[in-house]
Amino acid sequence: MNILLLGSGGREHAIARSLAKSKKLSQLYIAPGNAGSSQHGINVHLDILDFDQIKSWALDKAIDMIIVGPEAPLVDGIYNEIKKDPTTKHIAVIGPSAEGAMLEGSKAFAKKFMAEYNVPTANYLEITEDNLQVGIEYINTNAGPYVLKADGLAAGKGVLIIDEKDEAISSLKEMLAGQFGKASATVVIEQFLDGIEFSVFALTDGSDYVLLPIAKDYKRIGEGDTGLNTGGMGAVSPPPFVSDEIMTKVESTIVKPTIDGISKRGFDYIGFVFIGLILVDSEPYVIEYNCRMGDPETEVVFPRIQSDVIDLMNAAATNALAEVSLDINPLTAATVMLVSGGYPQGYEKGKPITDIPTTSNSIIFHAGTTMRQEELVTSGGRVIAITSFGEDHHIALNSSKKIAEEIQFEGKYYRKDIGFDL
Ligand code: AMP
Ligand code: GLY
């Protein structure tokens, strides 16, 4: 098969690496990709939000399947564009229609969906300028912390957790006034849930599904889970605290009702469902849905999948998931993310990256990297994810941290405490 993979992060490098292992692959293209993805395919300069450009390029290259890494093209309707055009509708798309992608694209939509299908989640209010008083009254009459979520896509930055009443009320007003642009014209105020988080990933065709390995990521920039939220500073798969008993509960109370809901709503949904969960006294609640794989979770989830991932995606595209059973590496995978100094706020790009070990058992996934002539340089906040395997997360993380020490670029920072709470 000729495959076009959209995206440029560590997630896409990890997906590209798994695709390249398949005998079913003829040619892999990654748009725009990074300096690591080009080890497994050809990077191409396409704008992942320019669907006309993607369609004509895909026809020209006889692409059989498009795998969509990030959420923005999905929420914008890349699936719908490709499927409504008679010249491109034969191309398999891994990623849901715009309707299905609303599970990530609108928090208020996701909350209504969960309520309709009895999926456990925090209680909430939907607030706009029109019912601002309802939001203020909720904050005034309930104890904090207060969870304020921009309804729309906000690059992972749209959730504020605030202890003080006055600050929560002023933040609510600022959000509604456009702090996150149109994304926060509606704000979801949620009950605060106190517990430990982990994530479940399913590949679905809209009625059947296959569960992929579970993972836990570390979002905060600082050690001990402090400081600003980032895209993710590291991840572990599987998190050891998730017992078979908990997974049985997660599947029956959350995954099945979610996929049934997708089916009942009639969404065209061939792709990944990423369910962010929180365990409160061993009871799982949904924190969020995403319509794609996570980053850096993919850097630990995909390396553990030993089955042919093209067979897997083909099964989703042809309604054959019911017959699939996955071969998963039982070892623990852990990843540590090297980031640019200053991230997630302002940081410099173009720093030369050196001392990447060429022989090790770990996997070096590129995220924000690019080639400047012959030189590998940084091109983003999250630069490189180092994934290692071990009998447990301590062993895996020790291997990753050794390599994190070795690799050099100006301003390099990483969390040395990934897995501290496990
Ligand atoms: P989200 O973008 O919805 O995943 O939220 C970002 C982070 O905010 C989550 O990973 C949680 O750590 C935290 N969070 C979101 N919703 C809640 C909630 N209802 N209670 C406690 N923490 C939350
Ligand atoms: N690591 C969290 C995400 O991909 O949304």
Can you characterise this structure?
By secondary structure, the chain is of the alpha+beta class. Among the domains are: 2-97, Rossmann fold (3-Layer(aba) Sandwich); 123-190, ATP-grasp fold, A domain (Dna Ligase, domain 1, 2-Layer Sandwich), CATH 3.30.1490.20. Helix content is 30%, strand content 26%. The protein is built from twelve helices and 22 strands. The strands form six sheets. The chain has a five-stranded parallel beta sheet with strand order 3-2-1-4-5, with helices on one face. It has a five-stranded antiparallel beta sheet with strand order 12-15-18-22-19. The protein has a four-stranded antiparallel beta sheet with strand order 6-9-7-8, with helices on both faces. Strand 13 and strand 14 form a beta hairpin. Helix 1 (10-20) packs parallel to helix 10 (298-304) and helix 7 (132-141) runs antiparallel to helix 8 (165-179). The two termini are 41 Å apart. The mean pLDDT is 96. Adenosine monophosphate binds next to strand 7, strand 8 and strand 17.
Give the gist of this structure.
Among the domains are: 2-97, Rossmann fold; 123-190, Dna Ligase, domain 1 (2-Layer Sandwich), CATH 3.30.1490. Helices cover 30% and strands 26% of the residues.
Unreliable runs: none
Largest sheet: 5 strands, parallel
CATH architecture of the domain at 2-97: 3-Layer(aba) Sandwich
What characteristic shape results from the CA principal axes? globular
Supply Rg.
21 Å
Number of strands: 22
What is the residue-averaged pLDDT? 96
Instruction: Give the strand order of the largest sheet, numbering strands 1, 2, ... along the chain.
Output: 3-2-1-4-5
Task: Identify every distinct bound molecule in the structure, by name, code or SMILES.
Answer: adenosine monophosphate, glycine
Per the CATH scheme, the topology name of the domain at 2-97 is Rossmann fold
**Roughly what fraction of the amino acids lie in strands?**
25-35%
What's the total helix number? 12
Distance from first to last alpha carbon: 41 Å
CATH class of the domain at 2-97: Alpha Beta
- Helix fraction, binned, reads 25-40%
Secondary-structure-based class equals alpha+beta
